[in-house]
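Page 37, continued from 36.
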């Protein structure tokens, strides 16, 4: 009876510590508040919607209705070396998370060794030992849980980084492809203008031969036509550069990549009438910033556990014999089992400094998260403003083209009648050419602004898309 009471007294402190195993040091994480607006300024019917779990990136590029663009983006997803780097970083983050989880489990080790010893007054002797050690440090104060929590947040941030790299690559590829197709259209406009200028030059030569106009009109017509021909080489150079840039995004050598000319541009996407402001919550940079806040919050808890004692349960068993083969017969056996409790009593302020560092880093990440959200809102406003203003500009440009073409027809008729010089014809032709080029540039800007909107919204505007979990959040590991 006395022995039982003695054992209970010895075990009481240990049992008390074990009951505290469910406690976790440090503050529980809450997402910091941010300034989310009720609506966007440049929206024209776009409105906010209730929050929902947007952690997906839609196939926004399909809205451009261009099979070649869709093919290129799918190829880049498989072959991009920049994306391969991000995937490698994600695998490293996943391994780091698994490494932190390993602290939940006991450690088991085995050793086999032999020694030979002796002295001046004693004969040499040999001793062979086989030993098995097991130790386990229960997570009494949640240090391991907080560390795993921090690594899980880091893993999610790495997944968001990979999604961000993929999105950046997709947008860069889409915008580069739009620029390339715009150059194709510029070439077509230039070829049409050259044909018109050729006709004007021929008309001028005929009138010169008939003695109606002077030699200076012929020279001016030839100069204008030749100027357009030299501009064609500039377009070819720019197209080659855009094509080489696309090859780099696709992860192939420029010599192995080429796109034939096309006489069409991608279609301008039809945007939905409702824009959920919460879409920016799925932006990779916003997710990364928020997950870093979560990781920093967990590391505060890790720092606070340094003030609490560490409990370690250990045991070992060993066999000994004076011959190695005797280890497997009937050797001497020794064993030991018992707990140990360790507490740092004085460290010169190191623990407090470590916690202060963790708190300061948390505050830094909170401020960075809030600024990232503000920057995201600004980016969305910029994209919406660009789309709205460009749409109005396109309407005005169409009216300008109609006026320029009508003016060119009137001037050509007056020139044939000998009422004006070729200088006015040249000016009218250049005005029409510039108006057509400007219209094409506006359409190109609209297409690129639509791609940029997909980027600033974190991967598209398709409100009805199914949620595809790209920002993985691993399940909580089972606690031993």
């Amino acid at each position: 009876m006395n022995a039982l009471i003695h054992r209970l007294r010895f075990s009481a402190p240990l049992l008390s510590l074990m009951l505290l195993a469910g406690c976790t040091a440090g503050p529980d994480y809450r997402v910091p508040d941010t300034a989310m607006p009720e609506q966007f300024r440049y929206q024209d019917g776009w409105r906010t919607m209730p929050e929902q779990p947007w952690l997906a990136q839609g196939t926004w590029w399909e809205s451009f209705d261009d099979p070649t663009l869709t093919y290129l983006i799918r190829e880049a997803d498989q072959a991009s070396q920049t994306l391969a780097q991000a995937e490698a970083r994600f695998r490293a983050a996943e391994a780091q998370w698994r490494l932190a989880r390993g602290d939940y489990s006991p450690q088991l080790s085995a050793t086999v060794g032999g020694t030979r010893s002796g002295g001046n007054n004693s004969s040499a002797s040999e001793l062979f030992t086989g030993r098995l050690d097991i130790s386990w440090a229960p997570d009494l104060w949640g240090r391991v849980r907080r560390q795993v929590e921090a690594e899980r947040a880091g893993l999610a941030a790495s997944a968001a980084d990979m999604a961000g790299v993929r999105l950046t690559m997709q947008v860069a590829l889409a915008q580069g492809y739009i620029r390339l197709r715009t150059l194709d259209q510029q070439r077509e406009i230039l070829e049409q203008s050259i044909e018109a200028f050729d006709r004007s030059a021929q008309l001028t030569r005929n009138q010169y031969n008939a003695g109606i106009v002077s030699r200076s009109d012929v020279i001016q017509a030839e100069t204008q036509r030749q100027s357009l021909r030299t501009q064609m080489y500039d377009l070819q150079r720019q197209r080659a550069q855009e094509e080489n840039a696309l090859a780099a995004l696709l992860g192939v050598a420029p010599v192995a990549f080429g796109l034939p000319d096309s006489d069409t541009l991608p279609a301008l996407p039809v945007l939905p009438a409702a824009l959920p402001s919460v879409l920016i919550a799925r932006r990779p940079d916003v997710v990364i910033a928020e997950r870093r806040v979560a990781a920093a919050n967990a590391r505060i808890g890790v720092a606070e556990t340094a003030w609490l004692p560490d409990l370690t349960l250990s045991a070992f068993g060993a066999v000994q014999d004076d011959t190695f083969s005797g280890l497997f017969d009937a050797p001497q056996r020794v064993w030991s089992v018992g707990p140990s409790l360790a507490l740092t009593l004085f460290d010169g302020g190191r623990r407090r400094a470590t916690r202060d560092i963790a708190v300061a880093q948390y505050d830094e990440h909170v401020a960075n998260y809030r600024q990232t959200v503000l920057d995201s809102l600004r980016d969305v406003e910029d994209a919406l403003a660009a789309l709205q203003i460009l749409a109005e500009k396109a309407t005005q440009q169409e009216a300008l083209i109609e006026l320029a073409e009508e003016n060119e027809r009137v001037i050509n008729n007056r020139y044939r009648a000998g009422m004006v010089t070729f200088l006015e014809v040249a000016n009218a032709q250049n005005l029409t050419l510039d108006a057509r080029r400007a219209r094409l540039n506006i359409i190109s800007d609209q297409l690129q602004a639509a791609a940029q909107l997909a980027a600033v919204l974190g991967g598209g505007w398709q409100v009805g898309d199914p949620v595809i979990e790209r920002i993985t959040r691993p399940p909580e590991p089972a606690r031993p």
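The domain at 14-106+139-310+349-456 is CATH 1.20.1600.10 (Outer membrane efflux proteins (OEP)). Flag for discussion at group meeting. Strands lie at 107-119, 122-136, 310-321, 332-342.
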